[in-house]
UniProtKB/TrEMBL annotation:
Domain Thioesterase: residue ranges: 102-156
Organism this protein belongs to: Monascus purpureus (Red mold)
Stretches of the chain forming a coiled coil according to its record: none
InterPro entries attached to this UniProt entry: HotDog_dom_sf, PTE-AB_protein, Thioestr_dom
Segment forming the signal sequence: none
Record's protein name: Thioesterase domain-containing protein
Length: 200
């Protein structure tokens, strides 16, 4: 209980590095879905913001202010080109709680927005875009200090080169759906955006 209610480690501290190492070890050795996805040749694994330098990552919300073992301690993406589908594996720490032990709804929305956007961006020839609409249904609480998966797809039939309709399910590691969401992403006609590249 002391651990649950105490302040999370300061990002970059020795305690934080130990916690991140523990989280990554669990990811590498103890998650069946990671083994399954790695065994499937249709999925390619990458880190979130794999195209960006460490300095650039500091200016991104989820890899900057929300970094560290207390925040989004781990974000891995498995991309399936054949199905235009992404499965992301994330670890959510104590620093993004809204209530003790319960992840803040705004943090969940941020995570969902990024994952929906990643699939939309892969669809756009411009390899960039922005959120136009986001609809979220919170089904059950999500708790800190746990791994979750986001299963994200695109509506190919209704999406175009400038609009992409995506949806996702956030699941815990019993497979239960915690949150569902749909998003509309667009490529603005008048605003010039930076290309995000193949590894978002």
């Amino acid at each position: 209980m002391d651990y649950k209610v105490s302040a999370p480690p300061v990002p970059g501290s020795e305690e934080d590095r130990r916690e991140i190492a523990r989280i990554h070890s669990f990811y590498e050795n103890a998650l069946p879905i990671v083994r399954d996805l790695r065994d499937n040749p249709d999925y390619v694994e990458s880190d979130a913001y794999g195209n960006f330098t460490e300095e650039e990552k500091k200016h991104m919300l989820t890899s900057g202010p929300l970094r560290g073992s207390g925040g989004l301690a781990l974000q891995k993406i498995f991309w399936n080109e054949k199905e235009n589908k992404a499965i992301s594996v994330v670890f959510l720490g104590r620093a993004i709680e809204g209530w003790p032990t319960v992840i803040h709804g705004g943090a969940i929305a941020t995570l969902i927005d990024e994952n929906l956007g990643r699939v939309a961006i892969r669809h756009f020839p411009e390899k960039t875009g922005v959120t136009a609409n986001l609809e979220i249904n919170y089904r059950r609480p999500m708790f800190s200090e746990q791994f979750y998966t986001l299963h994200t797809t695109i509506d190919q039939e209704n999406s175009t080169e400038r609009k992409a309709y995506t949806k996702t399910e956030v699941r815990d590691f019993t497979g239960r759906i915690c949150t569902e969401a749909m998003g509309l992403f667009v490529v603005p006609k008048t605003l010039k955006l930076q290309k995000l590249g193949d590894q978002y």
